[in-house]
UniProtKB/TrEMBL annotation:
InterPro entries hit by this protein: CMP_dCMP_dom (IPR002125), Cytidine_deaminase-like (IPR016193), TAT_signal (IPR006311)
Domain CMP/dCMP-type deaminase: 116-219
GO biological process: tRNA wobble adenosine to inosine editing
Domain of life: Bacteria
Pfam name, any one: dCMP_cyt_deam_1
Organism: Singulisphaera sp. Ch08
Listed SUPFAM superfamilies: Cytidine deaminase-like (SSF53927)
Name of this protein: Deaminase
Length: 364
């Protein structure tokens, strides 16, 4: 009879899917009878079946959006607005106010003291724009404020918009005026574009899909997210109440900061092992190539500052009278022209940089 110790070893190994031979663990398939396969069966229909035997490259590749120059101009105004909000609320003290940040000399105010005060969350922001061209609201990543890894900018923004649809706040929201067509929470955001400073994670992509967001324009690619937004879009049924938003990388708009941020991040990731992101007074230096660390550096700040400067310098637009069209080619009712969009974006920045408080109702 085996000992109690041998019995417990066998149970533990079997539960973990490891076979025991003469009391020695051997790698192999689960030994529990009737254990399921580690992969799902091939679907009989649907989008997943269409990609079942295709390459990963096919799954993540989306066609380039077909946009007119006037539509591109409109997108770029909102990209400039978002960059301005990122710069205004910039805070790079990811590891606290004390210590040394070799990648942030321009943000240093005294010996090993850096501007920004207490760290409020990563420099990741997003804003939502409705079909008429009005900004609904904006938000920032607030992981640090709430001691949570799920308080990302996009997920906070979508939840915030839904919470504002039945109340009147200080800035216009989509639900205040009665819509022309019947609207429920399932299609409330179906004509909304989200602009985000960093490519969305799986959580935020999923929440935007559940919110039926139309599209998401991102200013910087996040290689750690494995193009999850593209995958969700590809696998969404064509006719679905919760189709994942169309991801639009801002480089297809000619937004210079997109390529510059990518190049700067590659440099940071390559060199941070030799030049740490952070050197504490006591303890081990931080040499992680985390993209949220990169978004605290002078490299990233300078790029966003230039995008803000371009936005500040934009006084007139080339396609001043352009208004968006509906799917059937008709002008969107009550839509702002591109010139009005520029004026509106400046007005929103005035609000967002004073009363907005990083998009959170809490005092910062």
């Amino acid at each position: 009879m085996e000992s109690r110790r041998e019995f417990l070893q066998t149970v533990a190994a079997t539960t973990a899917g490891i076979a025991l031979t003469d009391g020695v663990a051997q790698a192999g398939p689960p030994t529990l009878p009737g254990a399921p396969a580690v992969h799902p069966p091939e679907p009989e229909e649907g989008r997943l079946k269409q990609f079942w035997n295709e390459t990963v490259k096919d799954l993540v590749t989306l066609p380039t959006p077909q946009l007119t120059p006037a539509e591109v101009e409109r997108h770029l105004i909102y990209c400039g607005l978002l960059s301005s909000l990122v710069v205004h609320y910039w805070n790079g003290n990811k590891r606290g106010k004390d210590g040394e940040y070799p990648w942030r000399p321009k943000q240093q105010v005294s010996n090993k003291q850096y501007q920004g005060g207490d760290y409020l969350g990563h420099n990741i922001a997003c804003l939502a724009v409705d079909a008429e061209g009005e900004v609904i609201d904006f938000d920032f990543n607030h992981n640090e404020v709430f001691s949570s890894s799920v308080e990302h900018a996009e997920s906070r923004l979508i939840r915030r918009i839904f919470s504002l649809t039945q109340i009147n706040n200080g800035w216009a929201t989509k639900g205040i005026m009665a819509p022309a067509a019947p609207t429920t929470y399932s299609n409330l955001l179906s004509d909304v574009t989200v602009y985000t400073s960093l490519e969305s994670c799986s959580q935020c992509s999923g929440i935007m899909a559940l919110g039926s967001v139309k599209e998401v324009v991102y200013l910087h690619r996040d290689p750690g997210q494995n193009s999850i937004g593209n995958i969700l879009r590809q696998l969404s049924p064509e006719k679905s109440s919760f189709k994942a938003p169309l991801p639009i990388p801002a480089d297809v708009l000619g937004f210079n900061a997109f390529t510059e941020l990518g190049t700067a991040y590659e440099r940071f990731a390559k060199e941070v092992g030799k030049t740490p992101f952070f050197k504490p007074t006591v303890g081990k230096p931080d040499t992680s190539n985390s993209i949220t660390s990169f978004l605290c550096t002078d490299l990233a700040l300078d790029i966003f500052k230039q995008a803000k400067q371009d936005f500040d310098n934009l006084q007139t637009v080339k396609y001043a009278d352009h208004v968006p069209s509906t799917d059937d080619g008709k002008p969107v009712p009550n839509a702002l022209t591109n010139q009005r969009v520029l004026e509106h974006a400046r007005a929103f920045f005035a609000y967002g940089s004073t009363e907005g408080k990083r998009g959170t109702p809490h005092q910062m």
